Amino acid sequence: MNFFKRFAQNRGALIGLIILALVVLLALLAPFLYPDSPWRMVQRPFLAPGEVAGFPLGTDTMGRDVAAGLAHGAWVSLLIGLISTVVALSIGVPLGALAGYFGGKIDDALMRFTEFFQTIPNFALAIVLVAIMEPSTVSIVLAIAIVSWPPVARLVRGEFLSIKHREYVEAARLVGQTHRDIIIKQILPNTLSPVIVLASLMVATAILLESSLSFLGLGDPDTMSWGYMIGAARTVMRQAWWLSVIPGVAILLTVLALNLVGEGLDDALNPQLARAR
Amino acid sequence: MSEPLLRIERLALSLPQGADRLYAVDNVSYTLNPGEILCVVGESGSGKSMTANAVMGLLPQGVDVAQGRALFHGQDVLTLSEIEHRELRGRRIGMIFQEPMTALNPLMRVGEQIAEVFEAHGLLTPKARRERALELLEEVRLPDPQSALRAYPFELSGGQRQRVMIAMALALEPELLIADEPTTALDVTTQAQILHLVKDLQTRRGMAVMFITHDFGVVAEIADRVCVMRMGKIVEMGQAREVLEQPQHDYTRALIEAIPGDAVPPARAAGDIKPLLSVTQLDKVYRSSGGWFQPKREVVALDGIEFALGRGETLGIVGESGSGKSTLGRCIVGLNTPDRGEIRLNDVDLRALTGNELREHRQRIQMVFQDPYASLNPRIKVGMAIAQGPIANGVPKAKAMAQARELLDTVGLDASAAERFPHEFSGGQRQRIGIARALALDPQLIVADEAVSALDVSIQAQVLALLDRLKREFELSLLFITHDLRVAAQICDRLIVMQKGRIVEHGNARQIFLSPQHAYTRELLEAIPGRQNHDEAAPATAEAV
Q1: Which of B48, B380, B482 is CA-nearest to residue B228?
Q2: What residue segments make up the domains of chain A, in order of their start?
Q3: Please, how many CA atoms are within 13 Å of residue A10, restricted to the half-sphere of its CB?
């Protein structure tokens, strides 16, 4: 209750949460609203929004329903964003925790490994990975996860470095708790708030990455996604601008909403900072 | 007496809703005459700093003036605008804070910071500002003021930084100096020097000083008049000598009794000394690997430490910050590894053990930490915090939790506390929880590292009494690490005095208090605020900072 109150104090975060809820709702309802495949050609191509009843957002270059594409694309975007973030966290959190907790040589080795990934530009690496593995939902999720875990590892390592010298951690060492227990029960719960905030922003970045990959034609050929819709429509930008703009606005709104929610979470989880602002 | 400099009339400051009481300061009236030192005394949360903050226009957000006036030279400062207040601050009212490190800008040289005071008020030319800064540093008796001007705050010691703060507060020759716990963060000998300096400057300049403190020892040292506050109300006010000698209110009496300024430890029956712990030739050097351009730094924390501790005995380790006393405690419990030497518990060398054997022996030494707020995990319930030790060592969870509840009862807390989170408890209660946690593994030795330093005096006395009781009940030995000789006097059988990693004196607590052998021990004892034989001792040490 208290947590939500603090969250709701940030007006932007509340708006973000509402937009996000609408997108999730759209994704969930997509199979019911548009039971047919979004790939099916249903009308003649290049219908402007509202030109023909039943196609509120018009049709694309091949005569496919843009509204259906948008709804099914929402599902794909959110799913890929969430899963790739979960995978990235499951790589970054343990690595960061081990590096921060044990320090010394382990820390050096793990951090050089992390830096190896950080030195390669994110997007270039993602393209290479997807190209090698052949575009599919799984390969895209993996590629996004692999390029986005290093910041998580860095953040968790920093938190561990500062918390491992707290007196309660030392007390736990004195009573003979194992390293595993100290990491999982004593330190990890106290590092979660910044990780949650980072994760919400990572979902947004993942959605952008997925859209960019699809835009370049490296998306899963079987799933309709927002990035693919923009990519397919870029050649007809001047005849049918709405074909690029509509999915573009969808991406913009979703990413904006996630960023707003992330900021709200930051305020709610770090009340001291929020009050000082 | 002439017109008072500052007159507080029926001042009440309201706290935001949901606080533990309605008013931070409730119907408080007092006056401060020119050339007088008024000590405002109280424990944490008594509202003693709030009045000063109101006068300075520095009230925290949510705290508002509900009624009353604060007349400075007959003008009500509570109704001033921010700009008028700024004119008043620094120029006519100076202020010194508790923590000299955080009150100074770490990236600015000391000289520039002092010059900035003049700059902020648009006074003097840059050259004259520098000269004034030098004069001020001389006045607060910093050693080598010329080079101190060019020093950064981190290059100065705590006492020197506090001197710089005082120089800044005095820069514009204020008529009133407000000092908010200026010596709390300092070692005893440094504290004595700073108190002496404040008193000296006050006489020389004829300022009025409002000195806010929790320590009646300090009051005895410098106050002309005292105002004792509790829960936002004044419980007693009067001439310092009268209040100290004949306190009228029970609370004042309790506070004064809690600080035996001339305390001499009672003679204790020397127990049969069956040694439990013996430490021989312990060395520890902290090395920081230098970079390309920095030389390696070595700090000797422990140098050939040797002592023995008997069963059921309380040994105090006393020293100032940097003396290595905490390192010694941490080496004994195993949080630090000494470079050389033996630590024998029950005649087994702990340093030769490994693995499970070591863990088993380690459990017999537990620790009570200094900071009651940092020593409990904010996300773990109190019961679990106590039970986690036994659980880690294979005791079934239900049994460990039942034992935790018993322990809470033993340390004077309700057993239902087990289901609550640490933030619901006060500092003193948390320290009790920390003690219960240390007891959970049934140790033979408890190392208490500054275990009561963060607590108010009356709470301090309670926790010390608890430790003493538990020590007898559980047949524990106690290694009590403290910088505060007064605390050591209350609980320790024997004392070790440490300086720069070495033991300089070692012996029966009573003997050390009555006839200290080493010069450093004498210095420490003389620096205790409130001791009668203080006066001739202070000037001798004033140059040492």
Answers
A1: B48
A2: 2-39+59-276
A3: 27
Please give the angle made by the CA atoms of B350, B351 and B355, to the nearest 5 degrees. 80
The chain A residue lying nearest B380, using CA atoms, is A186
Cβ–Cβ below 8 Å for B366 and A173: no
The alpha carbon of residue A83 is apart from the nearest alpha carbon of chain B, in Å, by 28
Provide the token pair at B328. Answer: 């010694």
Among B438, B494, B150, B458, CA closest to B310: B494
Say if residues B79 and B26 touch (Cβ distance below 8 Å).
Answer: no
CB nearest A174 (choices: B333, B377, B379): B333
Question: Which of B362, B377, B434 lies closest to A186 in CB terms?
Answer: B377
| Cβ distance of B359 and A171 shorter than 8 Å | no
Q: Angle between the B110-120 and B126-139 helix axes, to the nearest 10 degrees?
A: 120
Torsion over CA: A138, A143, A144, A145 (sign) = positive
Return the number of other C-beta atoms located less than 10 Å from residue B396's C-beta: 10
Listed residue (B46, B47, B41, B68) closest to B59, CA to CA: B47
Q: Are B50 and B59 in contact (CB under 8 A)?
A: yes
CB-CB neighbors (< 8 A) of B388 in chain A: 172, 175, 177, 181, 185
Of A166, A175, A189, the CB nearest to B388: A175
> Which DSSP category does A183 fall into?
I
CA B141 from centroid of its chain's CA atoms:
24
Beta strands in A102-256 (DSSP E): none
Strands B477-482 and B445-449: parallel
From the list A168, A170, A177, which residue is nearest B392 (CB)?
A177
Are B330 and B411 in contact by the 8 Å Cβ rule? The answer is no
* Cβ–Cβ below 8 Å for B377 and A176: no
| Cβ–Cβ < 8 Å for B448, B481 | yes
Task: Tell me if chain A has a CB within 8 Å of the CB of B359.
Answer: yes
Q: Which of A167, A177, A180, A195 to mutate to test the interface with B (most CBs of B within 10 A)?
A: A167
CATH number for the domain running over A2-39+59-276: 1.10.3720.10
ipTM: 0.76
Each residue's pLDDT tens digit in chain B (545 positions)?
A: 467 888 888 888 887 776 667 788 888 888 888 888 999 888 877 888 888 888 888 887 778 888 888 888 888 888 888 888 888 887 888 888 877 667 788 888 888 888 888 888 877 888 888 888 888 888 888 878 888 888 888 877 777 888 888 888 888 888 889 988 888 777 778 888 888 888 888 888 888 999 988 888 888 888 899 998 888 888 888 888 888 888 888 888 877 776 655 566 666 655 556 788 888 888 888 876 656 666 666 778 888 888 888 888 889 998 887 788 888 988 888 888 888 888 888 888 887 777 777 777 888 899 998 888 888 888 888 999 999 989 988 889 999 999 999 999 988 888 888 888 888 888 888 889 999 999 998 899 999 988 888 787 778 888 888 988 888 888 889 999 988 888 888 888 888 999 888 899 888 888 888 888 888 888 888 887 766 543 433 333 333 43
